Structures are given as structure tokens and as C-alpha cells.
Amino acid sequence: MLYTEQNVRDNLRNREGKRVFYLGKNDQLTSGARDFLSRERIPILNAEQAKKECWKLLSGGFVTDKPEHMTHLNGDVLVPKTHPRITFRGAMDTLEAEIILCQLESDEKTAKSLGEVLSFARMLLRCEVLGEPVPGGKLCGLSADELRSHSHRPQDFYGQPHFMPQAADGVVIARLNRCRCAAREAELRAVHAFSDADGNPTRPDLLQALNRLSSMLYILMIRCKGGAFNPPPGGGCL
């Protein structure tokens, strides 16, 4: 297989707390992928090194055969598939699927914004899996404060007040609303997965970023409803 930079990003693994990339014997890297690994100082390891003779359990024990009811929490630790962090990752998978389906129905401008939202969601999942802090920055050109202001006072920025979606709004707004609901579900799963015994968040950066993500999806609904995006021929935002 020829790995592009995006393929490499999607297949990074965690080994002893550090990011690594496993390359198979007959696999190759594009120049862009190799440059990315070099720039990020991510070592390239032989795929054979990825094989584990045993996996750790949170209880302190280990197993030599991976049970079907368990999955990887990180590189060499197995947990039941009902573990809160695993159900959070499942919710993020659902969100990504909803975003892609919405892109297929959307006009060019909306699809482009959704592409950025999709990349943002995948970055959050990577940060969770690898235990990395969520980097700062803007989402679709809006800072965290701007996202809050735009989502709370849409009429001031788009001339479109808050609304309850309905069938007459069209398929794109319906799809965007499904994405927003999926984002909120992922956020709730994250709150459950990343809270201590007293209910205090252990990953406030991740929770804040998920809130930003759902706000951005709501803003896209507002933009479509208010006509900020032009509809594609024969459909799209109304």
C-alpha cells in the first residue's frame, strides 16, 4: 500500500505514550507522508513490532489472547467494549458518518465547511486516543468566543433568529440537524467518560471543543435557513 499523509494521520498508533507509525514490509510512503512524519518527529517502525504477545487489563492483570468482548483503550491496554471511553469513540464514529452523509446532500459552500468540521472531529478523536491536549485555533474561521456569540445571537450576525427545524426547511437542514444531535450525543458521552468521582471534568479541553463543534453545526443550520449559502440546482439549503 502507498500511504499518503492523510493515510498516515489516520493510522498513527500510541506506543509507551508516544506517537508511532507502523510500516509494512511491502508498504511505501509518499514524500508528503514521509515529510509529515519527519516534521512531527514520529518514528517509523516495522509492522512486525506492532504485534503484542500480551495485553494489559485495567485490573492489573493481562491476557495473551484478545477476547471478543474487549477492545483497545490505547496501545497495549484492553477494556470491555462498554467502557465509557469506547462508547464515546463510537459516538464520534456516528458523528463522522452523519457529517459525510450531509456533505453528499449539501451545496459546495456548506460541504466545504462540513469538511472542516469533519477534520476537526477526527482531530478530537485522535487527541482522545493518544492522550494529547486539544490544540487551540479557529473552526470555520470562528474562534471559541465568536462561535458562542454567533450561536447565541444568530439574528445579529445572519439576520436569522433561532428556529425549530421542520420538513419544509429541506433535506440539508434536516441532515445538519442530525449532525448537531450526533455532536451533542458525543459530548454527553464525553462528559460521562471524562469526569472524576465528584463530577469534575478530567478533559475540559475535549469537552469545550465538542461544545464548539455542535455550535458550529447549529450555525451552519442558521446560515442555510437564512440564505447565507446559495442552494445547489434542484435542492439544498432553502
Structure, briefly:
50% of the residues lie in helices and 13% in strands. With 238 residues, the protein is of the alpha/beta class.
Give an overview in words.
There is one protein chain. The chain has helices spanning 5-10, 31-39, 84-105, 108-130, 144-152, 154-158, 171-193, 204-226, and strands at 2-3, 13-15, 18-23, 28-29, 44-46, 55-57, 62-63, 70-74, 77-80. With 238 residues, it is of the alpha/beta class. The strands form 3 sheets. A 4-stranded mixed β-sheet has the order 7-6-9-8, with no helix packed on it. Strand 2 (13-15) and strand 3 (18-23) form a beta hairpin.
How much of the sequence lies in strands comes to 5-15%
Quaternary organization: single chain
Strands of the biggest beta sheet: in what spatial order? 7-6-9-8
* Strand count: 9
Which sequence of SSEs, written as H and E, runs from N to C? EHEEEHEEEEEHHHHHH
Give the helix/strand class: alpha/beta
Percent in helix: 40-55%
Q: Outline, from the CA principal axes?
A: globular
Give the low-pLDDT segments.
230-238
Largest sheet: 4 strands, mixed
Can you count the helices?
8
Backbone CA Rg: 20 Å
State the distance separating the first and last CA atoms.
Answer: 43 Å
Mean pLDDT: 88
